[in-house]
Amino acid sequence: MDSGSAFVAHEVDLHGHRAVYRIAGEGPAVVLIHGMVNSSRHWAAVASRLAGSHLVIAPDLIGHGDSATPRGDYSLGAHAASIRDLLAALGLERATIVGHSLGGGVAMQFFYQFPQRTERLVLISSGGLGRGVSPLLRAAALPGSAALLSLATRPRLVGAIAAAGTRLRARDNPSGVYLQAVARALEPLREPGSRNAFLQTLRSVIDVQGQRVSARDRLYLLAEMPTLIVWGERDRTIPIAHGLAAERAIPNCRFEALPRAAHFPNLEDPESLARVLAEFLATTSPARFEDSEWGEVVGRRARATIRRVA
Question: So where are the chain's domains?
Answer without folding.
Answer: 8-131+213-303
